[in-house]
Write a structure and sequence with these properties.
mainly alpha
């Protein structure tokens, strides 16, 4: 029979991340979703017509940059230590 101590019970019930981590992860996911929304559209319903709007600044430069910023926020949220005292 394995004995469990109060310390091991307390440790097993703790979450890996704290509330601040989850808030930052939510912000990061929102920024990533915004980037993908900005990337959407620009196509043509008629295959014989080329729509040059697919290569505009928003879809080629802005949206991928916003997605990358969202991934950086996600990495920061994972590495954030909210219990660290300043």
């Amino acid at each position: 029979m394995i004995k469990t101590t109060d310390k091991s019970k307390k440790h097993a019930s703790e979450f890996v991340f704290k509330k601040k981590n989850y808030i930052m992860m939510g912000i990061g996911l929102g920024v990533i979703a915004l980037g993908f929304i900005l990337m959407a559209g620009g196509g043509s319903d008629d295959p014989n017509y080329f729509n040059p709007d697919i290569y505009n600044f928003r879809r080629i430069r802005l949206a991928p940059t916003i997605v990358l910023i969202g991934f950086v926020i996600e990495a920061y949220a994972i590495l954030l230590n909210p219990s660290k005292k300043k």
